[in-house]
Amino acid sequence: MAHTLKNIKERLANKIKVIFQDKSLDFDNKDIVINGVDYFLCRNVISTIPEMVAVEQRSQSEEDIWNYNTFQLRMRDQKKALYFGLRQDDQLIGFIGCRVNASMTRMRIMRLSVLPYPDREKAAVTLVNTLFDKAAETGVRSVFVQVRTGQEKLGEFYRNIGFKKAETAKNSELNNEVIEYQFLVSEK
């Protein structure tokens, strides 16, 4: 029986490798224009973490700020995590990060931060829409995000771009209630 279980584990591991070879979280950097302003959309890597922390400090409430170690931990597995940002004049103005499950069918937005400036919401929508495009390209069927109770504006932002409330639960990591929203990629 143990030998059979070992074979099953090996076959499953090989299948997962094939899945990740076929579907990739590679990200093609590109120039884009938002309201007549030029931006550069590019993958964030470990060396951009200090800039990401700086964006966090200016855009998130004090109790929500991720530090260098949190980003490093969340970003280290490039096959399951994708973080990319929007740059203007070589300065990071916002970013989004996600993780995918092993079968690459579900994606969870882990972080969305954009500096406070006039086109903040359009920049955030651009980042999320780019993530939707990447999800569709890789075969992801649904994108999820958790919003803590008390973050009504953030919940409204996600609902306005097509997310639907999936469930409300207690998040042990945050030790409070969260609302989970889901976006079905095939409906885009």
Short description:
By secondary structure, the protein is α+β, with helices and mostly antiparallel strands. The chain is built from 5 helices and 8 strands.
What does this structure look like?
The protein has 188 residues and is an alpha+beta fold. 36% of the residues lie in helices and 34% in strands. The chain contains five helices and eight strands. The chain has an eight-stranded mixed beta sheet. Strand 5, helix 4 and strand 6 form a beta-alpha-beta unit. The radius of gyration is 18 Å and the shape is globular. The N and C termini lie far apart (46 Å).
| Average of the residue pLDDT scores | 86
Major sheet characteristics = 8 strands, mixed
Amount of beta strand = 25-35%
How helix-rich are the residues, as a percent range? Answer: 25-40%
N/C terminus separation: 46 Å
* Total strand segments: 8
Shape label: globular
Query: Which structural category do the helix and sheet elements fall into?
Result: alpha+beta
| Low-confidence sequence ranges | none
Q: Mind telling me the C-alpha Rg?
A: 18 Å
Total helical elements: 5
Largest beta sheet: strand ordering: 1-2-3-4-5-6-8-7
The H/E string reads HEEHHEEEHEHEE
